[in-house]
Write a structure and sequence with these properties.
Layout lengths: L8 E3 L5 H12 L3 H6 L3 H20 L6 E6 L6 E10 L6 H4 L5 H8 L1 H17 L6 E8 L8 H16 L3 E5 L5 H6 L3 E8 L3 E8 L3
Parallel strand pairs: 4-5
Antiparallel strand pairs: 1-2, 2-3, 3-4, 5-7, 6-7
């Protein structure tokens, strides 16, 4: 599908967690982070879906500002989540409950001991590279591969940027996929910092200044 579609993003609820996890896993399972984190090609999609179910269910839906875009297959069909964005407002910390003691029994078996410490180190480097000033944080953005090029990603990120502009906030995100940098630059982001990770890749930190 390549034509532009008209859609509206809405706030996600806990009922949306499975749909958000599904669309983000379909969109991001080939990201360098997840290729390193889950090297088994046959298991990666399912593990990334579980990763985002934990991320959204514990953190970004109840404590963040997750947005979803739904589209129906056709007339009379139920709408299905086709795109999702995980946002954090400057007054919230979705990753606090996501990394609480009660979640560790889920993260350990999913990621495995061999990579868990390295993943926590990468996560800490992301936190240290984030702006000290209040900002809107985009943790993840994904579109169902069947709807790439239809404007869903642009609609989701624009709605977040509009909220940031209304509050005079900069917007921060990071990626290990250098191919996505151009997409963010189109929306006014610029790469402000890079951090290499042995055996994983390079994190690119992107900032869109407040307007």
């Amino acid at each position: 599908m390549s034509s532009t579609v008209t859609s509206t993003a809405r706030p996600a609820t806990l009922d949306d967690v499975p749909g958000v996890a599904r669309v983000l896993s379909r969109s991001l399972h080939d990201d360098p982070l997840f290729r390193w984190l889950f090297p088994d090609d046959e298991q990666r999609m399912a593990r990334v879906r579980r990763f985002f179910a934990l991320t959204t269910g514990f953190g970004y839906v109840p404590a963040g500002d997750t947005r979803v875009t739904e589209l129906a297959e056709g007339p009379g069909s139920a709408p299905v989540t086709r795109a999702a964005a995980l946002w954090a407002q400057p007054t919230s910390n979705p990753e606090g409950p996501m990394l609480s003691v009660r979640t560790w029994p889920h993260w350990g078996p999913l990621i495995g001991r061999a990579r868990l410490a390295a993943f926590v180190r990468i996560f800490a480097e992301w936190k240290m590279s984030s702006p000290q000033e209040p900002h809107l944080y985009l943790a993840a953005l994904g579109v169902d591969p069947s709807f790439v090029g239809t404007g869903l990603a642009g609609g989701l990120i624009t709605s977040g940027l509009d909220r940031a502009d209304s509050e005079g906030l900069p917007v921060f995100t990071q990626t290990l996929n250098d191919k996505s940098i151009g997409f963010y630059e189109h929306f006014g982001f610029r790469c402000v910092h890079q951090v290499p990770h042995d055996g994983v890749g390079t994190s690119y930190f992107l900032l869109r200044p407040s307007s």
